Amino acid sequence: MLNTLLGTTVSASWVSFTPQQLVQDDVILIGEISGPTGEKLGILERFRTSGYTHWKVNVRYYLKGDKESHEFIVVTPGAQSSSVKSSIDYRLDEWGKTVLLFLRKSEDNYQPITPKGVVILNTTQYQRQPDDQLSGQLILREFSINDNRISQQEKIEFEKYITGSSLVVLPTTADQISGGSWFWSNSQTFIAVSIVLLLIVSLIIFFRKRLIK
Question: What does the domain layout of the chain look like in residue ranges?
C-alpha cells in the first residue's frame, strides 16, 4: 500500500468476505440511509484513510445486536472535505438507500468491515400487518435483495440467513419472535422498579426508627 498526499490516491484493495463471515459481525440491521451527519478528519497513516464519514440510518429491523434505537450511526472510511483520498474510501449511499448492513464495532464506532457489508435492498409493496409475527419470512415479504455486486450464490446465502433468523427486533421495542417476549421484558422492568421502591421505603423506615430512639 502506498501513502500519498494532497489529493492523490492511496493504492489499496478490499479483502473479500463471505456471507458466512459477515453474519458473525456485531450488529446486523435493515434500514434506510438518511444521509451523512458529519466527517472526522485524521492524519494519513500507513494502512489508514485520511478521515471518516458518519451516516444516519433509520432502522426498520434489527436482526442481531439490538441497540433499541430508530436511528443508528454508521461510519465509513473517507471524507469529502479531505484533500487525501484512498481507494478504500466509499460512501454508504453509493449503491442505494435501503440496505442490509453487517456492522463491526471498532472502538466506539460501528462500520461495515468492507463494502461487502452493505447489501442493497428493494422495498416491496407488502405492508406489515399488526398481527404479523416478526420473522425472517416477514422481512423477505417486505424487502428483496437487489444488489448487482453480489453473486447469485451470495444472494441465496443472505436470504437463507434472513429466513433463519431466530430473533427479529423492532427499534425501541421488545417485540421478538418468541411469544410473550414483550410482556416478559416489561414485567422485568416492573419488578426492578418495585424492588428499588421497596428498598427506599425500608431505608426510610429504618432511619425513622433510629431517630425515634
Answer: 9-175, 180-213
Residue 10's CB: how many other CB atoms inside 10 A? 21
Rounded-to-integer distance, Cα 196 and Cα 194, Å: 5
Map residue 94 onto helix, strand or coil: coil
Dump pLDDT digits (tens) for 122-171: 999 999 998 999 999 999 999 999 999 999 999 999 999 999 987 888 88
C-alpha to C-alpha distance for 129 and 116, rounded to whole angstroms:
32
d(CA 1, CA 48): 10
Please answer whether residues 123 and 142 qualify as being in contact, where contact means their C-beta atoms are separated by less than 8 angstroms. yes
Percent of the chain with pLDDT strictly greater than 90? 48
- The answer for residues whose C-beta is within 8 angstroms of residue 99's C-beta and 6 or more apart is 30, 31, 32, 33, 57, 92, 118, 119, 120, 121
Q: Which three cell numbers stand for residue 105?
A: 464495532
CA-CA distance, 175 to 36, in Å (whole number)?
29
- The CA distance from 117 to 42, in Å, is 24
Q: CA separation (Å) from 39 to 81, 84, 90, 111, 155?
A: 8, 14, 13, 14, 32
pTM score, two decimals?
Answer: 0.71
Please give the pLDDT value at position 182.
Answer: 38
User: How far is it, in rounded angstroms, from Cα 13 to Cα 141?
Assistant: 35
CB atoms within 10 A of CB 134: 20
